[in-house]
Amino acid sequence: MKLQRLKLSPSIFAHLIAIALCLIILTWIMKLWCADLKIPFCYAGDAMIFNALTKGIIDNGWCLHNPYLGMPIGHDMYDFPLSQPIDFMLIKLISIFAHDYAMTLNLYFLITFPLTTLTAMLVFRHFKVSFGASILGSLLFSFMPYHFFRGVAHLNLSAYYMIPPMVMVILWVFAEPSHLFRDKDIDKNRLLSKKFTISALICLLMSFAFIYYPFFSCFLLLIAGMSSCISHRNKYPLLNSFILISIILVGVLANMSPTLIYQHENGKNLQVLDRIPAESEIFGLKIIQLIKPVDGHRIASFAKLSDSYSRTAPLVNENTIASLGLIGSIGFLILITWAFFRISDKLNYKIHDILNYLCILNLSSVLLATIGGLGTIFAYLIFPQIRAYNRISIFIAFFSIFAIILLINQLISKSIKIKRSLLLHSLIVCLILLIGVFDQTNGSFVPQYDSIKDEYMNDKIFINNIEHIMPENAMIFQLPYVPFPEYPPINNMNDYSHFRAYLHSNSLRWSYGAMKGRSGDVWQRAVAGMPTENMLKTLSQTGFQGVYLDCYGFEDGGAKLISAVKQNLKVEPLISDNGRLYFFDMTEFNKKMGANYSDIDSIPITFNSGWYGTEDWSGIPTCWMHSDGTLAAFSPRNLTANISLNALSFYRNRTLEVYSGDNLVARVNVPTSFLNVSAPVTLEEGLNILRLHVPEGCDRVCDIMELNSSDPRCLSIAMQNITVT
């Protein structure tokens, strides 16, 4: 036992050195001595959704439902699954000790660096790479530009620590000509080999990462299985890859099951995650973006070169962050060259084989992700939801770094007996590390600590002031209306900006966050579109007790709406110190209104599920329905009413069935010109869902040859002018 401890201690020491160096470098790059971990590293854009999800985990135990958002219905994430439970479980674990959402998220982002270093180090050591080269490779991979550019805003992508173990499994598939799950030398009583058990566990964990990484892993497993099957002339490598792919798919399916169950019960949401095949080219990968200098390079001439390309080249978007850095680019070019020229007589045969495998994986990744490549074919023929193929660049980065350190390792192993060579090679490794880190990082990776803190504290004080005057669980309506998720900026207001109210609140409920296309969202859209007086009456009868305005979301800075709200409520607003946010207390207005509401006129009836996006037909909002759809109404009390709408059938006549609850209240033959349809309905207090059904189904526009259209939608009936009388 003592001998074993002595044998293990150099390995443990090397891993501790790697982690310590990682933390030191990370502190230097991000200037962490300036950071307040209770202030978010990023307080804008996509980072806001991860801020909100983290707070949701702390407030509610998990992130799929949040009763403090999306009022009056609530916030559900089922239609927009981020599919990364492994990250959320670690966030939940950290929150037990941190309690604060900002500290929890900041710590998790920071932890992804040593986690990546550790997993990469373990993989390199598994393949007998020397300690020095392993430390070098693991640190270079941890500090890829991709890690910082993705950051908290794309936390699901910056947490890429499962990639090294996954690549190890893929290399096992390459190298193993027989059953991966049975070893020839193991005990016959043992069902599975150790290697297969580890492979299965890694694949299962990978299935819990963001969907892109499991997808790329399946592709690379398939490539490994096919290549090994051909080279070994044996079916088992392909069988091995299929088994491991199946494990990933089962894990992904289990991960997606809440979404699948929810959509089975509530219908598919056609307005969320609506991707088209052409996006696979827009967000494809370019080879030049892998080898160009990182954006904002520390050397001015390099930065200018990168900026010149990004400003003038077409199809430059998030793929601009695919840069591998100088060391990674050399590794990438070595792997490209390896496909044509190999120096097998000068390399250890094991290193030679691994370089062969990495070469195949590298070329396959480029062929998949490049613009017009295999990914585009897959998007057009099979599945367009995977669109940002440039994200495979982090896999390519690992292949490239792996190739470099294998060659460095070979150099060290051949000259290790030369006097003082160990010291020399240690110095060379340190020099390469310094060059690599200097080249791969820049000053923009330091969060704007002071400006973020100023804005954060401004919002915190403002929301705290609202909480002091509002009762617990009061509902606040947020303006302007902004669909959630994925919506372009409105004037000077970025997407997800409305989350800042929730992030500083402990006892209030906010309207923002209702899932786009679902009943809460369409209700909000209808209410926000009303004249100010009617809007406030509707909010009052629904139970809202305040109105929150973000002036950045209005072309006139909100002046017109602020004046109208002030005139109707007859109260002065609370204003944030920076003048951006306004809050109106509706308490006195609600008391005055009492029960003096028009029962019907102020009830919005809106498109709910089963509809395509709203279109403007001569100024009239109109929606096309799939074969089934629903309408949503929020009623202040039990009512008997009559719903009226204009309906038009696409291409041919169809039958429209209207259901109130389980009761069929109307069956109408709808022609290809607008027809008025009316039916009696019974509305209960609260949310009501009216169901519409077309027995003949829908027709796909692109399948009707005489229309000569590429529109992929399947349409049945268009509706407009929906009213309740």
UniProtKB/TrEMBL annotation:
Key word Transmembrane helix present: yes
Keywords per UniProt: Membrane, Transmembrane, Transmembrane helix
Coiled coil: none
Transmembrane segments: 12-30, 105-124, 130-148, 155-175, 195-224, 236-254, 321-343, 355-382, 388-409, 421-438
Keyword presence, Nucleotide-binding: no
Protein name: Integral membrane protein
